[in-house]
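User
New here, help please:
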Amino acid sequence: MNMLLLEKEDFSAPGKAVVRGRRFERLRDFIHIAEGKELKAGVRNTDCGKAVVVRITDNEAEVAYTPLSAPPPPLPLTLIMALQRPQTFEKVLHGAVSLGVKKIHFIHTFKVEKSYWQSSRLRPENLREEITLALEQAADPVEPELFFHRRFKPFAEDELENIAAGTLRFFGDPAGTAPVPVRGTPLTLALGPEGGFTEYETETLRRHGFRGLATGERILRTEFALAALLGKLLL
């Protein structure tokens, strides 16, 4: 936990918040808080600041919160990603949120198992929990927007052009040769499932102006390919 992420409902009065549950246990057991300890903090979807511990009991901590700055800037990138198998989905979501991606579209492709859409990891409460952990890791209080599209063809025909409007467009491709753009350029990145996009899906992306971009000579797992491509495009 690199930042104490406060919720608006934590506040009992202006500048006074009470922390319970998982966050309190983390503060108590790993950060070893004491009265007077200052913590890096933020309020969800609001601002960044500091929290000073003013009171501790067996099951909660009261903090005094002071806003200090705006959240870190988001990455200028929209991510389109084939829905991954459940174990990989959490890693991909956590990684993308930690790196500052604020718009993520999960799509169905030919190689995505239909059962993935039934995973408990897609329940709102589980999505929120994983996003919260990633925001705490990155010290960024601003949640991403998540979108789910269960049919590839309608997504490509009806929504893709609007989603990628005004951006340079790339997709993960082991044979890709597209040049790396100038830093700061708005981007859209599409990443396929394990096994990659089909030829039809690849040609559909190309028709919409997407160019193939490779991570290198090695074949990477999806979560590592995402980090490598984001680093190549943005860092």
User: Anything to note?
Assistant: The helical segments are 21-31, 86-98, 124-138, 152-163, 199-207, 222-234.
